């Protein structure tokens, strides 16, 4: 069969391999059809060889690179133009905006977590010795899960306080006058002194609290199952918080991995409330013991969060430009293109900061701010004043939504980690 100009392709796409019927869907074809108009499969009857396979691979790679370069060029140097072209139907030239944004988001957050020091937080958590404050008389008991008073530290703190008072007495007698006249105030005006507070009663009150706490801890440690049954009688948030406190203590003490272990060990009823209390305590404990890992895992979820965040933000763009002849999807494409540029600039900034040990994020954010303004003017075609007003409003909404989204993401991740 002869060869005709315009129909010749290399490899298995040569005219001599063309068929008159699609091998994939059976659609009838003309000899000039390079691809099936029904399913887009190549019109070729030739068996695949390794050479054909690698030719197609590199051809597709070069084709993607061509799209990628054109997309980057349009994003960086032609603000708003790429969205206008894409909306008007010129789409084969550029990469898909949704897939492109997802790829950039993954790349950026991967680089961000790699260059961060979040892993050091795990080591810091492991090295935590249980002291709440350095030199504090209050210690965290890793066995009971409660606070205890360190008598040695308390004695040292008492001596330090006395030394401070002695020093004040020598250097500033005026301050000591008020301290030394408490008894006089008590005798002269007992009502006024009672309003100031009775230190002796406060000490007794603190001792009563400590005594009650010791009784509760003793009962809990002696009979965890019996103690939990008393919690089953409580209802509402008080009962839920007490259960979460119980699980928080024994997850650490008995190294519980899941609710099933706790249920079998302490004969706990399998209820939704109990499971939720255990999962909450377990998540909080993991966050406290592995803070760096938790932050890294949460950041790795942010690319997916963006795809829920951007459609919500686009609603505000659609409302602001409701008189424009654009659909919601057109506004969404505009949002995705600009967000893609932001990630490109952040990736460049992170790369420069890593190489040259500098902080260039501010410069690149200013570049993006200027680009966004130009993109809005180019795509929506409005004057400077209207664009500036809408620019300020939309950026304010963006910051509020972004802040709220980040808070919800980290809170939800912490409770389900």
List keywords for this structure.
two-stranded antiparallel ribbon; disordered N terminus; extended; 1% strand; 417 residues; mainly alpha
Report strand order across the widest sheet.
1-2
DSSP E strands, number: 2
Instruction: Give helix and strand order, one letter per element, not per position.
Output: HHHHEEHHHHHHHHHHHHH
CA gyration radius, whole angstroms: 34 Å
The number of helical elements comes to 17
What is the share of helical residues? over 70%
What is the terminal separation in angstroms? 66 Å
Low-confidence sequence ranges: 1-8, 129-140
Q: How does the overall form come out from the CA principal axes?
A: extended
Give the mean pLDDT: 75
- Biggest sheet statistics: 2 strands, antiparallel
Assembly level:
single chain
What does this structure look like?
By secondary structure, this protein is mainly α. Helix content is 71%, strand content 1%. The radius of gyration is 34 Å and the shape is extended. Residues 1-8 and 129-140 have low confidence and may be disordered.
List the helices and strands and how they pair.
Layout: H1 50-77, H2 81-87, H3 97-115, H4 118-126, E1 138-140, E2 147-149, H5 151-171, H6 173-180, H7 182-188, H8 190-196, H9 199-222, H10 224-232, H11 236-253, H12 259-266, H13 272-289, H14 291-320, H15 328-356, H16 361-380, H17 384-416
Antiparallel strand pairs: 1-2
Helix pairs in contact: 2-15, 3-14, 3-15, 4-14, 5-6, 7-8, 9-10, 11-13, 13-14, 14-15, 14-17, 15-16, 16-17
């Amino acid at each position: 069969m002869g060869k005709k100009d315009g129909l010749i392709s290399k490899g298995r796409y040569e005219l001599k391999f063309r068929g008159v019927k699609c091998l994939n869907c059976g659609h009838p074809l003309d000899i000039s059809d390079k691809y099936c108009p029904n399913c887009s499969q190549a019109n070729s009857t030739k068996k695949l060889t390794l050479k054909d396979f690698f030719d197609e691979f590199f051809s597709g790679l070069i084709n993607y690179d061509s799209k990628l370069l054109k997309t980057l060029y349009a994003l960086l140097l032609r603000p708003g133009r790429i969205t206008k072209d894409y909306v008007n139907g010129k789409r084969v030239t550029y990469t898909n905006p949704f897939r492109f944004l997802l790829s950039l988001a993954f790349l950026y957050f991967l680089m961000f977590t790699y260059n961060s020091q979040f892993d050091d937080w795990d080591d810091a958590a492991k090295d935590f010795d249980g002291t709440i404050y350095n030199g504090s008389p209050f210690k965290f008991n890793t066995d009971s899960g409660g606070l205890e008073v360190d008598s040695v530290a308390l004695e040292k703190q008492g001596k330090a306080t006395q030394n401070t008072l002695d020093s004040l007495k020598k250097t500033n007698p005026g301050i000591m006058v008020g301290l030394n006249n408490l008894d006089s105030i008590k005798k002269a005006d007992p009502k006024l002194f009672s309003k100031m507070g009775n230190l002796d009663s406060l000490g007794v009150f603190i001792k009563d609290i400590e005594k009650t706490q010791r009784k509760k801890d003793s009962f809990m440690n002696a009979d965890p199952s019996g103690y939990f049954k008393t919690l089953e009688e409580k209802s509402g948030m008080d009962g839920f918080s007490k259960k979460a406190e119980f699980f928080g203590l024994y997850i650490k003490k008995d190294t519980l991995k899941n609710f099933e272990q706790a249920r079998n060990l302490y004969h706990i009823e399998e209820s939704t409330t109990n499971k939720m209390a255990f999962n909450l305590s377990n998540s909080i404990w993991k966050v406290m013991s592995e803070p760096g890992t938790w932050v890294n895992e949460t950041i790795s979820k942010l690319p997916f969060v963006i795809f829920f965040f951007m459609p919500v933000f686009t609603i505000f763009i659609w409302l602001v430009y409701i008189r424009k002849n654009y659909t919601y999807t057109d506004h969404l494409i505009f949002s995705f293109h600009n967000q893609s540029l932001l990630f490109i600039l952040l990736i460049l900034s992170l790369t420069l900061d890593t190489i040259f040990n500098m902080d260039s994020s501010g410069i690149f954010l200013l570049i993006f701010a200027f680009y966004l303004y130009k993109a809005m003017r180019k795509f929506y075609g409005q004057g400077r004043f209207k664009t500036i007003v809408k620019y300020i409003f939309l950026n304010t909404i963006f910051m509020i939504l972004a802040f709220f989204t980040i808070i919800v993401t980290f809170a939800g991740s912490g409770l389900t980690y």
